[in-house]
Design goal:
Distance between the termini: 51 Å
CATH topology of one domain: Arylsulfatase, C-terminal domain
Organism: Eruca vesicaria subsp. sativa (Garden rocket)
Strand content: 15-25%
InterPro entries: NAP-like_sf, NAP_family
CATH architecture of one domain: 2-Layer Sandwich
CATH superfamily of one domain: Nucleosome assembly protein
Structural class: alpha+beta
Order of helices and strands: HHHHHHHHEEEEEEH
GO biological process, one term: double-strand break repair via homologous recombination
Radius of gyration: 28 Å
Strand order of the largest sheet: 1-2-3-4
Number of helices: 9
Pfam families: NAP (PF00956)
Shape: extended
Helix content: 40-55%
GO cellular component, one term: nucleus
């Protein structure tokens, strides 16, 4: 097939692709016609058999995913190098050798790792705002956990002590409905304990008032407004977590 496509010019390739598409559409149409010609009882039996097989598929898929999630765990623990909980073997000695004992500055982990990671990822970059970057500098780890009952998953965002909020862990739990495909039913987030004047979902506007005819002076009026801030990247992070792992190896609301 490779040799054939190389030999074809661009116009011939386009014609070949069109012909293949038409053939596939015809086959799909024939399949639909066959189902429509079946009796209601027979069609129902076929659909039930299909549903039974599909249910087994989802059951085995969940078991297989759980199995490999455990196998992935040793790789995820290597992220402790990023947070500084674990040091790269021999790294400290190399720094001492290069800079000398008196010049060594103890710095653990990778500074701003997660902020840089999410900004450099195509999926999450569009979700990060300038206002949110300040807080994300203190983000030291992100963890994903499956929730069995009700079905869903939980994201945990671990933060160092920071000037924005008191919480050290922010969570977002997603409840899913398992039908033909997974559908988000609802999401429950941590209540963020903002420090005074540090709430990233609010902005104070200053507005000059008209001159007072009596005093001929102006005054300022402060008004607090809500702004949109996507602090978490929600469902997109399911894919992003794995993308970031592979990279490592080769609203206006008070709730999070």
């Amino acid at each position: 097939m490779y040799v054939l496509t190389v030999a074809l010019n661009e116009e011939d390739r386009a014609d070949l692709v069109t012909a293949l598409k038409n053939k596939l559409q015809n086959l799909a149409g024939q399949h639909t016609d066959v189902l429509e010609n079946l009796s209601p009882a027979l069609r129902k039996r076929v659909e039930n058999q299909h549903d039974e097989i599909e249910a087994k598929f989802f059951e085995e898929s969940a078991t297989l995913e759980a199995k490999y999630q455990k196998l992935y765990q040793p790789l995820y623990t290597k992220f402790e190098i990023v947070t500084g909980a674990v040091e790269v073997e021999g790294a400290s000695e190399e720094i001492k050798t290069e800079q000398g004992e008196d010049k060594v500055v103890e710095e653990k982990g990778v500074p701003d790792f997660w902020l840089i990671a999410v900004k450099n990822n195509d999926i999450t970059a569009e979700e990060i705002t300038k206002r949110g970057e300040g807080a994300l500098k203190y983000l030291k780890d992100i963890k994903w956990n499956r929730v069995e009952e009700p079905k869903g998953f939980k994201l945990e965002f671990f933060f160092d002590e920071n000037p924005y909020f008191k919480n050290t862990v922010l969570t977002k739990t997603y409840h899913m409905i398992d039908e033909d495909e997974l559908i988000l039913e609802k999401a429950i987030g941590t209540e963020i304990e903002w420090y005074p004047g540090k709430c990233l979902t609010q902005k104070i506007l200053k507005k000059k008032l008209k001159k007072d005819p009596k005093t001929q002076s102006r005054s300022l009026r402060l008004r607090t407004v809500r702004i949109s801030l996507t602090f978490s990247v929600h469902l997109k992070f399911l894919m992003t977590r794995r993308i970031l792992m592979m990279t490592w190896y080769g609203h206006p609301q008070e709730k999070f």
